[in-house]
């Protein structure tokens, strides 16, 4: 494999690898936040201890089945990532591209799950419709 140097002295594959890793770090931070917010909203919906602001916003507009399904999918993706990481060895230059591709695929999947979570969370904040 012939790596070409970029103007800043990094090898091209190293720049790509760092870019993928940075994207993953940003997306996983949002993922963690969205997951926790969904769990909190779902718990508020389930307990309905009183008409708190959180419960009011989640009570009527929360698509509970979709939230549970999304949380399960999010958890499965984390397990898939953990499994891939357990199999990971320090990459040889020839393996680094494969690892980078796997991480980029995880990032894309997590990003899509984040979009779904954000849509549901936005829906949960809408005021209830009057009958």
Describe the structure.
- The relative contact order is 0.16.
- With about 130 residues, this protein is mostly helical.
- The protein has 4 helices and no strands.
- The radius of gyration is 20 Å and the shape is elongated.
- It has helices spanning about 10-45, 55-60, 65-85, 95-125.
- The model is unreliable at about 1-10 and about 55-60 (pLDDT under 50).
**Count of individual helical segments:** 4
Helix content: over 70%
Rounded to an integer in angstroms, the radius of gyration calculated over CA atoms is 20 Å
Query: What kind of sheet is the major sheet?
Result: none
**What's the quaternary structure here?**
single chain
Backbone shape: elongated
What is the string of SSEs from the N terminus onward?
A: HHHH
β-strand amount: under 5%
- On the 0 to 100 scale, the average pLDDT is 78
Assign the structural class, choosing from mainly alpha, mainly beta, alpha/beta, alpha+beta, or little secondary structure.
mainly alpha
Could you name the ranges where pLDDT drops below 50 across 5 or more consecutive residues? 1-12, 54-59
Alpha-carbon distance between the two ends: 67 Å
Number of strands: 0
Summary keywords:
disordered N terminus, 4 helices, 131 residues, mainly alpha, elongated
Task: Give me a quick take on this structure.
This protein is mostly helical and 131 residues long.
List the helices and strands and how they pair.
Elements: H1 12-47, H2 53-59, H3 64-86, H4 93-125
Helix pairs in contact: 1-2, 1-3, 1-4, 3-4
């Amino acid at each position: 494999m012939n790596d070409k140097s970029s103007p800043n002295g990094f090898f091209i594959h190293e720049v790509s690898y760092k870019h993928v890793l940075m994207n993953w770090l940003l997306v996983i931070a949002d993922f963690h936040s969205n997951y926790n917010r969904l769990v909190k909203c779902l718990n508020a919906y389930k307990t309905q201890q009183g008409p708190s602001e959180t419960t009011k916003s989640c009570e009527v507009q929360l698509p509970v089945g979709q939230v549970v399904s999304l949380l399960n999918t999010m958890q499965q993706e984390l397990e898939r990532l953990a499994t891939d990481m357990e199999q990971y060895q320090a990459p040889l230059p020839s393996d680094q591209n494969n690892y980078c591709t796997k991480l980029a695929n995880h990032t894309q999947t997590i990003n899509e799950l984040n979009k779904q979570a954000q849509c549901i969370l936005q829906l949960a904040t809408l005021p209830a419709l009057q009958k």
